[in-house]
Structure formats: C-alpha cells, structure tokens
C-alpha cells in the first residue's frame, strides 16, 4: 500500500496534465489556422493513441478481452464527443468564452462523481473548489475584456459546454477502468477506441469543406502543432489525468483542471508576448490554495477511495 505521502505525490499527476493542456492555448493559435478542427482532433488523438500503444506493447501483457473492449469503446465515445465539440467550439468562440467555459469541467465532474459514483462532496472539497474557481476567474477576468465574453457564437458556446460535460463523463466513467487496468492501459485503449470514430467525423468534415487529405499543409508549424497536441496534450496528459484516478476520487482530480487556463495565460505571456492581467498573481495564488485544500483533504483520508470492485 502506498503511504499518504505517496498518494499525495501521485495526486499531483493531474496538475502536470493541466499544465500540458495549458500549452494548447498557445499551440492552437497555429493548428486551427492550418487544419480544420475535427481533422486536427483526429490527428491529435491518432498520434496520441499510437504513442500510448507503443508503450503498452513494449511492456507486454495481454490485451483487453472482448467484454472489456465494450467498456473502452464507451470511453472512446466520451473522448470523441469531447474532442469534436471542444475543437469546433473553440474555433467558433473567442478566447475569453473558451477559457471560462473550460473551467466548468470540474463542476460537472464533481456533480457526476456524486451522482454516479456516490462520492461525498465534503465542506472542505466544496470550499476548495470554490476558492480555486474564483482564483481562476480572477485570472481570466484580468486577461480578457469582459464585454467580449458575450460576443462569440452561441453554437460554439453550446459545443464547449457539451465538451466540458463530456470530459467529466470520461473522467467519472473511466474511474473503474483505471482501478482495474491501470492508468496507462485505460488511457491507451480508450484512445484507440476513439480513433475510428473521430476518423469518420474528420472524413465528413473534409467532404463538407470540399477538401482532400492532401490539402492539409505539411509544414513545420502543422507538424509541430500536431506533435504537441498528440504526444504532450493527449498521450502524456491523458495518462497523467488517469494516473490521478488510481489514488484519488474523480472529484478531487477535477480540482486540478482549474490550473489549465492559468498555465495557458503564463505560457501566452512567455511565448507570445501577451500581457498578464493585474489579477494574475492574486488569482493564481487563490487557485493554488483551493487545489491544495482539496488534494490535502484527500491525501489525509486514503481510506475513502472508491472500491475498485464495486459495480
């Protein structure tokens, strides 16, 4: 059995995942300008799934049974819904809307964790989530014109809401698969299951736009964007996200998601010369405190983990 300190260290894996996703704010400025959104999502997941499979194949061991593939196919459906709605929604909305709607994912995850898994929403967890959410909102309010939040496409807003809820579904319904198969295999096989689903959607998108696969530019920018999205923000980040579920509840893992737009703002300042808003330091500190409250509660209560044999 891991010690409480070990459990706490592994709970930080989702924070690393959120940091990698924060990089998507920078990379997407290149990717969406070069490749249609659903096609970019397909390339991202196909590369990420391939990278994960190489690691699993290198470690050996049996693959999933026919019955187990049904579970991974369902998780692949959540992946497909998340990526398609997130990428199309991001293209249709402005940056402020996308950032604010993204941080609803932890809220959806906590609610689903309570409804589906029976996870307790303690006062400490609710308070920590509130503090983290307020901190992230302070950062975003300092980065964007509040008047611009209402200026985007309503369809894009709806798609981003669906995408946030879908990732919450992937997190909550993936918990039992993670506890049974481990984070690496759960992330790998659910990603592989989503590849043909996204492939069909990407083919439909290219047909609708009147483009052929050969029309996708093969440039340093496009290859770099797909490589980061596939290897870093998919293969590595999805494994790290699920790694947290090996040790803590879905609701606790969700708190780390608040770090994503904060990291994105910091990287935008460092790599793109964007100005940080006046509330960045204060908001970032509040976000860190809120995440610490949630993760500390969990680290000190290891006996409350969901039973991996349940259901």
- Compute the number of helices: 15
Globally, the shape reads: globular
Structural class: mainly alpha
Largest sheet: none
Low-confidence sequence ranges: 299-311
| Rg for CA atoms | 19 Å
Secondary-structure element series: HHHHHHHHHHHHHHH
Helix content: over 70%
Count of beta strands? 0
Can you tell me about this structure?
The C terminus is likely disordered. The protein has 311 residues and is mostly helical. 50% of the residues are buried.
Write the layout of secondary structure elements.
Elements: H1 4-11, H2 13-22, H3 24-34, H4 37-59, H5 66-92, H6 95-102, H7 105-116, H8 123-143, H9 154-173, H10 175-181, H11 183-209, H12 220-245, H13 250-255, H14 259-272, H15 280-299
Helix pairs in contact: 1-15, 2-12, 2-14, 3-12, 4-5, 4-11, 4-12, 5-9, 5-11, 6-9, 7-9, 8-14, 8-15, 10-11, 11-12
For the structure shown, list the relevant keywords.
single chain; 15 helices; globular; mainly alpha
Structure summarized in a few sentences:
The chain is mainly α and 311 residues long.
């Amino acid at each position: 059995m891991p010690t409480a300190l070990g459990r706490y260290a592994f709970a930080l894996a989702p924070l690393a995942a959120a940091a990698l996703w924060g990089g998507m704010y920078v990379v997407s400025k290149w990717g969406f300008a070069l490749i249609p959104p659903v096609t970019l999502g397909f390339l991202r997941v196909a590369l990420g799934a391939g990278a994960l499979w190489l690691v699993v194949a290198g470690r050996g061991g049996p693959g999933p049974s026919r019955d187990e593939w049904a579970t991974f196919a369902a998780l692949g459906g959540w992946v497909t819904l998340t990526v398609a709605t997130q990428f199309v929604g991001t293209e249709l909305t402005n940056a402020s809307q996308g950032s604010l709607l993204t941080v609803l994912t932890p809220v959806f995850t906590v609610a689903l964790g309570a409804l589906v898994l029976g996870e307790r929403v303690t006062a400490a967890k609710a308070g920590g989530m509130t503090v983290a959410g307020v901190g992230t909102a302070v950062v975003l309010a300092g980065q964007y014109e509040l008047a611009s939040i209402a200026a985007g496409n309503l369809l894009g807003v709806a798609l981003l809401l669906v995408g946030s809820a879908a990732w919450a579904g992937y997190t909550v319904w993936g918990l039992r698969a993670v506890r049974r198969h481990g984070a690496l295999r759960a992330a790998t096989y659910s990603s592989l299951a989503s590849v043909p689903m996204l492939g069909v959607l990407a083919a439909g998108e290219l047909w609708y736009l009147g483009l052929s696969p050969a029309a996708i530019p093969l440039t340093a920018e496009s290859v770099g964007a797909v490589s980061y999205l596939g290897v870093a923000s998919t293969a590595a980040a999805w494994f790290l996200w699920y790694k947290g579920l090996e040790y803590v509840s879905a609701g606790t893992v969700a708190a780390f998601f608040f770090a994503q737009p904060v990291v994105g703002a910091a990287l935008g300042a460092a790599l793109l010369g964007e100005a940080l808003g006046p509330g960045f330091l204060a908001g970032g500190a509040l976000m860190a405190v809120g995440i610490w409250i949630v993760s500390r509660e969990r680290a000190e209560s290891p006996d409350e983990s969901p039973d991996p044999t349940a259901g």
